[in-house]
Write a structure and sequence with these properties.
alpha+beta; HIT family, subunit A; 5-stranded antiparallel β-sheet; 2 helices; globular
C-alpha cells in the first residue's frame, strides 16, 4: 500500500525522481539528498509503514530484509572495512522527518558515539 502524499511512496512509484541504488519487490535504496556522511543511503520498504512503532509481527520478514539490504549496499559502497552505521529514527523527537519507515546507512568518515 502506498500513501498518495508520502514523499517516499511517490519515489517508489517513480512519480518523484530519486537516485536508486537498489530495487526489489520489498525495498528500494536511494542516496539521501541531504547527506550527513560521505555515504548516506536510505533503505525504504515498498510497503508504507509510518514508523518502526507501526510495524507488527507480520512485518518481521520485511524488517529483516531491510537490514540485509542495508548490509549489502554498505558493502557494495566499500564501507565494510572502515565500518558503517545503520539508524532508524522513530518519531519527530528522534529526527524522523519523513514518516515512512526507513533505515539510514552512513559511512565514509569516523562516526562518533554517542550520536547526536
Amino acid at each position: 500500500m502506498s500513501e498518495p502524499n508520502c514523499l517516499f511512496c511517490r519515489m517508489i512509484t517513480k512519480e518523484i525522481p530519486a537516485d536508486f541504488i537498489h530495487e526489489d519487490d520489498r525495498a528500494i535504496v536511494i542516496r539521501d539528498i541531504n547527506p550527513q556522511a560521505p555515504t548516506h543511503l536510505l533503505v525504504i520498504p515498498v510497503e508504507h509503514l509510518e514508523s518502526l512503532d507501526e510495524a507488527g509481527k507480520k512485518h518481521e520478514p520485511v524488517l529483516g530484509h531491510l537490514l540485509r539490504v542495508a548490509a549489502r549496499v554498505a558493502n557494495d559502497e566499500g564501507l565494510a572495512e572502515s565500518g558503517y552505521r545503520t539508524v532508524i529514527n522513530t518519531g519527530a523527537g528522534a529526527g524522523q522527518s519523513v514518516f515512512h519507515l526507513h533505515v539510514h546507512v552512513l559511512g565514509g568518515r569516523p562516526l562518533n558515539w554517542p550520536p547526536g
